[in-house]
Amino acid sequence: MPVRHIGALILAVLLPFALDNTTEDEKTLADAGLKSDGNSLIQFLARRSEDKFDPIQIKALIAKLGDDNFDTREQTSATLNAIGIAALPDLKTASKSTDVEISRRAKDCIQKIEEGSRKFVVAASIRLLGTKKPEGALQALISYSQFSELDQTTEDLIYAITATGSENGTPSKIILDAIRSDKPLVKTLCAEALANINPDLFKKEALPLLNSDEPRVRYKIALAFAKLGDKRSIEPLVSSIGSVSQWESSLLDHLLRKLLPSNPPPVGLPQPELQKEWAKRTTDTSKILEAQLAFNAKNIGKTLVILLDAGKLIMLDSSNNILWKIDNLQFPLDAQILPDEKVLVAEHQGNKVTERNKKGEILWEKKIDGPLAVQKLEDGSIFIASKSNVVFVDQKGKEISEFTPPNNEPIMKANIASNGDLCLVLNTPQGNAKFVRFDKNKKPVATYDIDVRTSGGKVDILPNGNSLITEVYGNRVIEFNNEGKEVWQFECEQPVAAVRLPNGNTLITSMTQMKALEIDLKGREIWSYKSNTRVTRAFRQ
User: What backbone torsions phi and psi does residue 38 show, to the nearest 5 degrees?
Assistant: First the structure.
C-alpha cells in the first residue's frame, strides 16, 4: 500500500478524537463570550500568541505590583492579565517575592491567566480549528504552538496540525518548513504531527533531531520515534533522563522498567545516576520488541482516575488532558485498566461488575451484590470481592470458586497477590480492622491489626510481599511487612487509596484535597491531578 494511503488511514483513525467534541467546544466558547467561526478562532489564537512584550517591559510592570499607589497596582495587575501567558514565567518568579504585596498580586495574576487558558477555552479553539479547517488555520496553529506547554494544549495542537496540515497523507510544506525552524516547540509539535500524517517521512525528516542539542526537542522526538516502535529512540530517551523534569524522568524510568523488567536499576536513584544505570542496561536492545515499545510509549503517563461521587472514570494523558471518560457509573468503588482501552469496574450501588470500552459501552457484565473490588487475573478469570465473600468467575460469568472469611468477618478491601495469595482487610467483631493474607489453601499466613475505617477498592500488595495501607483518619500511608511492622510511611491529608509504581513512586488519592498525587521515595510530590469532587482511586497505565 502506498505511503500516502497509509497516512490517510492513520488520519481516519485519529481525527474522530476531535470531531466528537465539536458541539461541546462551541458551547465552551459561547459561554466565554467568544465566536466559533473560522476567522474568529484564528484571531483569538493570534491575540494570545502575539509576542510584542519584551522581558524588560514585563519585569518593569511586575515591580509596579508593589507600588505605593493602589490605583497603580490595580492598573498594573490588569495590564499583566491582558499580556497573558507571555508574562507567566516572570510572574511565577515574582510569586516567591519577599514583598508580600508583589507575591500576592503575582499569584492572583497567575490564577486569572491560567484560568483563562485552562478552562478549555484555548483547547476548544484549537480543536475547532482542526475540525473546521478554515483558510489560515494551519499557520495560526503553528504560530501558537510556542505557547502550548504553558497552556497545556500540546496534544490538541498536534491533532489540529495533523488535521489541517495534510491532504490524503501528504503533509503541507508549511509543516516541513516548521520542522526546520529554530523554534524548539514549533518544530517538535510539527514533527509529532508529521509522525501521524506520514510515519516514513517523519523518520526521514526528524532523524537529525534525535541528536539535537536542545534536550526537550531530543526527548519529544525520541518519544515520537518510540511510539512508532523504532528502537533508535532508546538511546536518546535514556540520555534524556538526566535533563528532563523529575516527572518526565520518572515516566521514562517507568517505561524502561516495563520494557526490561528482569534487570532494572535500584529505585530512588538521582536522575544522573539513573541515566547512567539505564545506559548500561540498554546497550543491547535486541530483547525489546518493537510492538512492546510502541504500545508502552503510546501509553506513557496515562492515568485512570475514579471520581466516586460523580460516578465517573476519566483517562488522563501525561499532561492531565482528558483522553476519554465514562459517565453514569453507579458508585464505582474500584476499577482495573485492561488492554485495548477497556476497563473493569466494580459498580457498588449498581450491584454489578462491568467491562466497558472507552465509550462506556458494556462488553461484559456480572450481577453481584455490592462489589467492593475487582481484578482480572492472568488466566482470564475475574476476582470479585463483596462485603460477605469473594468469588472467582470465568469469562462467561460462571462461578469457579468462593471463599467466605472465618467467622463471617466483613470484607473491607481485597486483592490477589502476584503469587496467588488472597489478601483481605477485614472488619473484626470489636469494630477494628485487620489485614489477613491467605495462601492458596486459604490458610492464614500473615495477620496484623491496622487502622482502616473505609471500605472499597484493593489493598496494594508489593512485589516484596509487603502491603500498602491507607489510614484515612490517621492521615498516613503505611507500608507493612508480613509481621505487621511499619517499614515506610508518608503523611498525607486523608488518603483513600495508594498504589506503588514500578519505579518506586507512590500514587495516592486524598479525600479532602480531592486530588490524586504521585510522590517519590523521599515524599516529594512530582505529579498531581485535582478535581472539584472526591478523587478516590488512581491507576497508572
Answer: -55, -45
Written as one string, the DSSP assignment of 59-102 is: HHHHHGGG-S-HHHHHHHHHHHHHHGGGGHHHHHHHTT-SSHHH
SS3 assignment for 36-51: CCHHHHHHHHHHHHCC
| Residue at grid coordinates 520542522 | 179
Report DSSP letters for 356-411, one per residue: EETT--EEEEEE-SS--EEEE-TTS-EEEE-SS-EEEE-TTS-EEEEE--GGGPPE
Identity of residue 21: N
Report field, pTM of the whole predicted structure over 0.90: no
State the angle between helix axes of 121-132 and 154-164 in degrees (0 to 180), rounded to the nearest 10: 10
d(CA 435, CA 427): 9
Alpha carbons 59 and 50: distance in angstroms, whole number: 18
Q: Please report, as a single letter, which amino acid is at residue 42.
A: I
Identify the CA nearest to 313 among candidates 516, 455, 476, 469.
516
Task: Name the helix (H) or strand (E) containing 121.
Answer: helix 121-132
The stretch 46-74 carries a mean pLDDT of 82
Q: Which residues contact 173 (CB under 8 A, 6 or more apart)?
A: none
Alpha-carbon gap, residue 216 to 246, rounded angstroms: 13
Which helix (H) or strand (E) segment holds residue 26: the answer is helix 22-31
CA Rg value for the chain: 25
**Residue 511 CA to chain centroid, in angstroms?**
19
Residue 40, all three cell numbers? 474568529
- Quickly count: other Cβ atoms within 10 Å of residue 526's Cβ: 16
> Mapped to the 3 state alphabet, what secondary structure does 236-293 carry?
HHHHHCCCCCHHHHHHHHHHHHHHCCCCCCCCCCCHHHHHHHHHHHCCCCCCCCHHHH
- Residue the block writes with cell 468469588: 391
Say yes or no to pLDDT of 130 above 50. Answer: yes
Compute CA 541 distance to the chain's CA centroid, rounded to the nearest angstrom.
8
Which pLDDT tens digit goes with each residue over 77-108? 888 876 777 788 889 889 888 899 999 999 88
Query: In the Cβ-directed half-sphere of 109, how many Cα atoms lie within 13 Å?
Result: 33
Which residue, among 256, 178, 252, 264, has the nearest Cα to 219 in the 3D structure?
Answer: 252
Q: Edge-to-edge strand order for the sheet containing 399-403?
A: 373-376, 382-385, 390-393, 399-403
Output the 3-class SS for 473-493.
Answer: CCCEEEEECCCCCEEEEEECC
